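S.,

Sequence below, as promised.
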Amino acid sequence: MKKKIISVSLAAAMSLSLFAFAACDKKGGGGGSDGWVDENAVTVAQVKEVPAVFVDSSATKYTDASIGTDTLVYTYEEGEAVTVAIEEGSDKVTLSEPETSTEGGVVTAEYTVTAKALGDYTLRFSKGGKEDGALSLTVRPAYPEDPEFDALIYQGGTNLWKTAHAHDPVVVEAGGKYYSFSTDNDGNFGYQVRESEDLIHWSVVGNAIPRCGSATSHSVYENGTAELQPVYDLLKEDGHWDESCWTLWAPDVTPAKDGGFWLYGCWTAAFGQGHSVIFQCYSDEITGPYEYVDMLVYSWDGWQNGAPNAIDPSIYYDAEGNMWMAYGSFNGGIWTLELDPETGLRKDGLTIEDISGSEYSRDERYGWPLIETNVMEGPVIQYREDVPVYTGDVTAFDASKMTYEDRYYMMGSHGSLFDSYNMRSYYSSEPNSGFVETPVVGVSGNRVSGSFTWKTSADDRSVNYDFYVPGHNDMFTTSDGVDILAYHNRSKYGNNEHYLFTSMFALNSKGIIVMNPNSYAGEALRKVTEAELLNLSGGDYLYRIVDSNDYTASDNGGYARSGLKLGANHAVTVNGAAAGEWYLYGDNYVYIKLSGVKYYGVAMPAWLDACDKGGLAISCLSEDGGDCLYLDMTF
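The prediction came back faster than expected:
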């Protein structure tokens, strides 16, 4: 499936590696691939589509040849001598001669990439006889292979876990690896940094900010030598300081204008009081050490007069390259503040002293309210161009009637962190207003996920984890075009710890986010055939309806149901009885009508833990946006 380069962000100001924005990262410039600058940079504006190709090595093939071919689309100025060649991996793919067209002095070259075998390959770009960057990609299996997930237990005999204690994660791609930053709920004050090569297996790198102190000793602050000393001094003088509130919450990291990285963090004077500060730090290296720069927002009025809580910062860029910071948690709603992309600080130039009193209005101090709500936190925004939207009859799909919209997607988490946390999505045509769900029913948002399990009963041991109160997610796109949600998840039947989870996401035919209901295992979105859905598992599926924010109150007490079958002639049966209809349309869109409810979703490859096998999952959203329907093949 083609993946478009759809983020403008820093490309307006820099020449970035294609590793930076191979589709649209989490916030169109911050957080996902995050625009790290590479000396072998391919100018991001020149690569329009990234190829994604697959090899089906299964014994019985129900795919077709289309999964093994895709296109690389590259643009350049007329008159330039440009070549693209396979630098490494000629045994993995072939590259056609380009088909070109010219308009307005710009040449568009379309190359066909055809898969030959699984593995990595590199495309080298040259311009005028000189190297102009490289693009490293992978031929993936049609169905993911065993990812050998880390067990959800202590690793290495320390209190730092490979995936545990990862609360409020944000993920950045830089230098060919992925880095996660998270809230410091492991007993060590300061943001944890983890590293991964595959978004599946993680190892702890260390603490992002030096000289922060710890949960048991804060002498660095008492001595006035801590890295975040100005933040502490301000909060300590706030009048609401609570000595138990030694926690840095919900960081974000994004590339700085002239190289290096900005870290945005937050600290609150007391839990649940709204007296909080968002600050910025800087490092030359993605892993740190990060040094304090300045404070951006101080919510000194503590939710009074509609003021927000200054926590959960999240950076994004709009279509024109303007820089924004979404933030806010529960009472006071979700807000955004425009930043200066040259400095990453407030564009209006107001200092923390300026906004620490009543001289300026609420909106001058805090920016623009995005959603007026008291039930949402952890906003993250991603900009995407040319989102396909189909409103016609899916039973007689007509691709010519597809329309395309530029959208800003916002995700946030609702409910209690302890028992009803769930992820929601919104969208807008503007970066700082107009976020709605479909249909507009207030501020609840479209459900993306909630608590569920692929176990079919309390005695089922086929899966060793659950999706329990998942949320506070990041959303970003990898350098080779895979859309990913990173979030914390608990295990209802385990130790109730927060774990770092990742899952692929996609957009259904209405342009709404749906999440693969399985842990990410290296898959990518691709064309799916009706033969696969009907025959790969004999049409048999486990299914889950997530229709409640409470785990046990959800359909079937949170457990999966068996007996659903997708049959010929578009029939859906449950335990042999007629239950509805289904249709596959476009590359991978799926429509299911089950027990009278209409669902719109996407079929995607997945590692199916309950079967210990790769196959397909289907993730759907109900027409009213309130319920998720998840299907996993069962073998």
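Helices lie at 219-222, 229-236, 362-366, 530-535.

Coffee later?
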